[in-house]
C-alpha cells in the first residue's frame, strides 16, 4: 500500500449540509486508536474520525455482538488517492489487521464464516466514512447487502490483513469492496462487495 501524500484538506472536516444518520464528529474520541501508527495519505483528522466511528458505532459497547473481535481489529493504513481510470475521482482505501483467537473459530477449529462476514461489514464501511469526510457528505449509513466469497480456511494464530476500498458514493447509496488475506502467506481468505444506504436521520428514532 503506497503511503504517498495527495492533496487533501488538512485540518477539519467540511460541514455537512443536512443532519446525518450518524455524525462521525459527534462520536466519542477513541483513546485506544493510535493515529500516529496508521500509515497512509489520509489527513489525521480523517484517521481519527474513522476510528471513532469504527469503534463507537461499528463495534459498539462491550455487551453487543462481536465486540471483542471488533476491538481487536486495528487499522494500519488509511489512504486517499485518485481512482485509476475514473476521470479524477478519489478513492479511499483502508487496511486493518486482526489476529485469530479461539473465540473466533467454528466447531472445526477454523475461523467462523460469521466472523469473517462481521469483519467485512465493519471494515469495508471504513473507506466510505473516510471518503465522505473529505467530500463533505456522510459515509456512515446502514448495510443493504453483502456478496461474500469464502476462498480458504484460517486456523487460530493467523493474522488477517483486511483491505477495503470505496467504489461509489451517491447521495443515498454507496458501495465498497473488501479482500481479506492471510498476512503470513498472502493467501486470499475471503472477498466481498458491500452496499450501504443513507437513511433519514429521523428514521433512527423509530428503530
UniProtKB/TrEMBL annotation:
Organism: Mycena pura
Pfam families: 4HBT
TM segment ranges: none
Family, as annotated: Belongs to the thioesterase PaaI family.
Keyword Chloroplast: no
Protein name: HotDog domain-containing protein
Molecular functions per Gene Ontology: fatty acyl-CoA hydrolase activity
Domain of life, source organism: Eukaryota
Domain Thioesterase: 109-186
SUPFAM superfamilies recorded: Thioesterase/thiol ester dehydrase-isomerase
Region (Disordered): 1-23
Gene3D superfamilies to which the protein is assigned, alphabetical: Hotdog Thioesterase (3.10.129.10)
Range of residues in the leader sequence: none
Keywords tagged on the record: Hydrolase
Keyword DNA damage in record: no
